[in-house]
Amino acid sequence: MIKIYPVLFTVLFFLISCERQSNSIELPEPIITSDELPNSFEIEKAGVKIYFENTLSMDGYINGNTNFKDVFRELLVAVDNEKKINFDTEFYLINDKLTPTNFGVENTKISEKLTPQSTAKIGNKTSSNFEEIFNTILQKQDGNMISVIMADFIYSPKGEPNTISALNKLRTYTKDAFLKATTNHENLETKIYSFKSDFKGIYYDINDKSITGLNNRPYYYFVIAPTELMSFFINEIEPQLKKAVGFKHEAFFTSNAYSPVPFAILSSTANKGRLKVRNGNLEVANYPKEGNLEFSVLFDFSSIPIDNEYLMNTSNYQLSNPMFSIKNIGIKEGKSIDFINQPSTKIHPGDLVSIMNKKFTHAIIFEADGIVSEDLSFALRKKVPSWVKESHSDDDRQIYNDSLEQSKTFGLGHLIEGISEAYLQNGNDQYFDVTIPIN
Amino acid sequence: MLKDLIANFYELWGGAYLGEFSNQMFDNDLYFPVALYSIIIALVITVLYYYVLNRPNIAKLKIWFLFLMIGAITNAIIAYVSAYNDLTEIFASINEELPKSFPSDMLMFALINAFWTLVLIFVFSIIIKWKSPNSSYIPF
Known about the structure:
heterodimer, A: alpha+beta, 2 domains, six-stranded antiparallel β-sheet, disordered N terminus, B: mainly alpha, 0% strand, elongated
């Protein structure tokens, strides 16, 4: 018996030492960040056409030094100093006529020369027919070109006795213009940026009544470009615009879809119930004693050119099974998740190991009412963002006395709905869809 | 498939699912090496008893039972040490310490491995005992 023990322990220690060597953990290669990637844009030269709505209602934005001019200057400088693509920039004043001009100065100085006086006698400044403006601009949209339209987009239903009918006409003709454009150029995308600027001029209401004394007014950039150039604009130029004073909201319209979206189910973070995650499948080990089952999933939305305001609005998502609902949406920040109206949630170390060297940007907490028996499918729908409804006005006659009305734009909702409908008609109605397998 | 099968043995088909510990063991393929070495050690101990040390004075049930316990304890230690070392290394790679529940989970894992070792040595004994010159009637 005495001789047995040395033999056994020798075998035991030999095996343990071998086991450690053979099972050493090989960590995956670190992820290359976007900054380290080579320039993936094959376009070397492109055109940028900047259109300024040259109407009387726009004079208040260019009268002296305003936030409008600051943002315009940022745009011109960003485009002029872009090194990856050689941009050929052209500036146009647009009303009933399309007038190219640079006021005799270099591009970056155009914003300084843009004044009510310098634009006074160019075209008919009392005309702001956006259906025509879009038609003109979209017809000129060709190849590698970015079109930027700067306007207040206040609709003037001149000679229209029925306002609702006039607004519907605006939507239909806008839709028509974008349908034709997106049919001719399938990959044409549109991005809308909403800003607020100080305003030193006259506002013309639905009845063309002149109103003075409005100090701040919204205005918009409509950017139209093919997919690759739009991606470039979003990555390289947009940050300058969004940093500028007065930036408020954005909206994006495309025929493209962005599936598949990478995701990872978290087994131990922000959950109710005990979860088992095997080979990417979710298994419910135990349901919670009280309340509904909850589980959180990380997503990488970085390739989807949609802002957080839209991504984090639960009403923009469509779930296939009524037993599931979205409880909360958060942004992943390092080793934590910042959910809406919740203190920062630390990601469980075990989940951190599972997502090691993978990139995720957002987290969604799903809630299940009852026993889960099928996969969870959900999609991000292409909708007009909620801020558009909040910024839309269909009666601006009381604008002087109504501070909320002063932040709205007459007819904006119908204009953007027209664009949205055109894209929905010509493409997918979802930005992406995801199926989370549940056993 | 094999990975799932081994995980089922260690998690007793969900009865001993230990949450994050079990997930980490599964995700990082840590069950397999423990299972492999446990099988080898169970086999070595069984062969050792029936054929290498093969003597009349150890052909007793209590000696066989002692070998059974040595195998179980050895494999329990292997399971604990292996899980501890590998998981510590994995968590250290993301600058995190092992979760507080893991030591007790590792103990449970070690006990389950010891249980399967007992079963394995018993099964191996039944299979290979017949040609043992002195212990063919052990355990029965």
